[in-house]
Amino acid sequence: MDLLQNHDITCPYCGEKNSLEIDCSSGSQEYIEDCQVCCRPINVFIDVDGIDVRLHVSHENE
Ligand SMILES: [Zn+2]
Asked: 29: helix, coil or strand?
């Protein structure tokens, strides 16, 4: 089973796609990822259920 998955998120600031590599073996997590396009900090929430990954992103100040 491949525990590393690539997922796309949409930057909440500029609307561009960023691709993230997510390690499902670390379970649900939350961190800040700088947008690859506008460099602003995106809050990334990752909900991992087995190999099923749900992503949610928000502005830093939300
Ligand atoms: Zn951006």
From this structure: strand
